[in-house]
Design brief:
Layout (H helix, E strand, L loop, with lengths): L1 E3 L17 E5 L2 E5 L10 H6 L5 E7 L6 E8 L8 H10 L6 E3 L7 H9 L3 E3 L6 H5 L6 E2 L2 E2 L1 E6 L4 E5 L9 E5 L12 H8 L2 H12 L11 H29 L1
Parallel strand pairs: 1-6, 6-7
Antiparallel strand pairs: 2-3, 4-5, 8-9, 10-11, 11-12
Amino acid sequence: MTWLSTAPTFRPTRTVSGSYPRTARSGSATAILTPRGATAPLSRRAKAAGWFYGYKVHAAVCAVTGLPVAWTVETAKDAETTFALGLIDAARERGFKVRNAIADKGYDNSPFHDGCMDRGIFPITPLRQTPAVVRGDHKPRCCEHGEWTFAGADFKRKATKWRCPTGECKPASRWVKADRLHPLIPRETERSRKLYRSRGAVEREFGRLKHEWSLLPLRVRGLERVKLHVDLTILAKLACRLAYERAVALAA
């Protein structure tokens, strides 16, 4: 099972003036369009009243079956990366063996990477442009013979092995401790690219939940009611899939 994550934004609760804004959807994100006559979003009055604009579903989706295995609902103001490791733990508690954690560029940070490594999971994320990346700290070692090549990884040592292209350097190879810039599955390898392409499973699943299983439009207010709505929607889909798999097994 591969862990994936994204967070579609639901319809906002209300504007400062109390009316419902319209929404314009693009992929899994939702842009807020303030209606005419409404006060500008996130004004001081709105912040003082504790209002927010929408909810987010954070989910771990199996890349093989395309089904959600763990999920949570939070307000849209909360950062997505804070819930990632909790979803991984929830999936493992339910008996799923998580081997790879595939996420978008927003999850490319040290806490997420180190948390995955501590759980025995390979993190797969695109590289985010940080000062270390701008300096080129993520690039392989170079010598007079050229750029060193990847020669394997040791998960127990949590390190990758890099080798001189000609083998003339002394030593001819070196171990590099795995971190966000140097993951155990280097981003330059075909294996990493192939794994990351499977992240589309989570986008397709959210599309099916929103447009085929009535996850949207949202007709309730309050975080607890939204959580109940999401739970019932996802559980209904999982129950139908379970019934289908059992019927296929019996027919065979």
